Amino acid sequence: MSDFMKWLYVQYIRPQLDNAPPDEYEMWLSLLDGNLTSDMRRDYEKCREFTAIHAFLLGLRTGRGLPR
Q: What per-residue string of b and e applies to 16-45 under the rule 16 or more CB within 10 Å gives b?
């Protein structure tokens, strides 16, 4: 993964995720947050970074093909 994508995650994607209302996922996010050890939290954050970056890239790729 490029350094730019990691920078984009920290500067743009992560703040958007943090500000998104949890709505129907609030209970599961709370349960997860309360049960993770520090090692598990680090692994979770890396997986979240990977997934969010690739979801963002997928949105760019599919959005490009949409009619104007």
A: eeeeeeeeeeeeeeeeeeeeeeeeeeeeee
